[in-house]
Design brief:
The chain has helices at about 15-20, 30-50, 55-60, 80-95. The chain is mainly alpha-helical. It has one domain (about 25-95). Helix 2 packs antiparallel against helix 4. The protein is elongated.
Length: about 100
């Protein structure tokens, strides 16, 4: 492990910063973050499906904000958005 970054000046050399960015670390924190993020996303997707927020927020509004040049992109009609959400649920689970 390289020595801690010296704060003697306002600048840190690129080489010194590079050494600290590429130090091997324990993978456990990355695994924990990956599992926690996947679980939170799974829970949020389930809330959208269970609370019927898909209909309220994406299908019912008269006006949806679009990006410049992407006016042609519209939400999937009817059950299409629900099918997308249901098929997305297993993909979050399989990313663990």
């Amino acid at each position: 492990m390289p020595p801690p970054l010296a704060h003697s000046g306002a600048r840190i050399s690129t080489l010194e910063l590079g050494r600290h960015l590429f130090v091997p670390v324990d993978i456990a924190s990355v695994v924990y973050f990956h599992i926690a993020f996947g679980a939170i996303m799974l829970w949020q997707m389930w809330r959208y499906i269970d609370s019927d927020w898909i209909q309220r927020y994406f299908l019912d509004p008269d006006f949806l904000f679009t990006y410049l040049g992407f006016d042609w992109v519209q939400p999937w009609p009817g059950i299409g958005l629900y099918i997308y959400m249901f098929t997305s649920l297993p993909s979050w689970r399989s990313s663990y």
